[in-house]
Amino acid sequence: RQRWLDKLTAGLRKTGSNISQVFTGGQIDDQLYEDLESALLMADTGVKATQHLMDEVKRRVQASGATRPVQVKNILADSLAQLLRPLQKPLVIGEHKPTVIMVAGVNGAGKTTSIGKLTKHLADEGATVLLAAADTFRAAAREQLAIWADRNTVEIVSQEGGDPAAVSFDAVSAGRARGKDVVLVDTAGRLPTQLHLMEELKKIKRVVQKADPSAPHEVLLVIDGNTGQNALAQVRSFDDALQLTGLIVTKLDGTAKGGVLAAIAQERPIPVYFIGVGEKLEDLETFDAREFALALLS
Ligand code: GDP
Question: Which GO biological process annotations does it have (predicted)?
Fold first, then answer.
């Protein structure tokens, strides 16, 4: 646990704002609050969540009669943890067999890597996993997924140049027939220009439902934690189109923009099932609101 927390802390500390810096002065004054507001904005907390946190912190400082900056820091940590709490929820599998998990995300977000890590995580828990290569547009995507399937020694349903929805349908049917616990559906992050990504993804969702009326049981979006407010925009548009059930936030081992989770909590409190803290198979962790708040402020 410690190792990844250190990575997360080191990554978050790269922020030019360095929130902890705000509390090194001798007193609680307007300057401190101004500096805090800028630091939160620099960490990509966004205007709304920053405003919420500022109001909350000022109110609690007043109510508690705090006089030292370090007390403000503790109050901020509590307020931030409270704001992030709704995002802390475990991914539960086992209610359905197979549990069908559709995974979306723009190219480069870390989707394929996250699917590889998630496969290992599920396999470590004793689940049998089947991968579906429903990004049929890019040969490289299929090959990448096959590599992760190999590394995890799990089966993959893949078809060169096939229709993404048809591959997904086949995979869910195969998952049922082979008694798998989980079917993970990898989807495209970009399409040839004449096709509309959201329409394709909605179609996959519809067709998966034909293979199993209760599926997909989870629709996850992978976002790059480094992209700050851009990640929030992606959450909005994918959620509008697909009704997301969870998020995986990647690259938190090297970012200054971890505040975006506060913005997500404020606007679209979709559970963060996992965070990515590196490129290796084991660099996937469950999200803990309090730990994350403390890392952001350390
Ligand atoms: P995709 O296009 O969304 O499938 O993205 P990939 O899974 O291919 O990842 C894009 C790049 O990000 C690769 O170089 C990955 O190694 C890297 N990457 C993915 N997740 C993480 C993470 O949590 N931390 C770091 N540092 N790099 C990551």
Answer: SRP-dependent cotranslational protein targeting to membrane
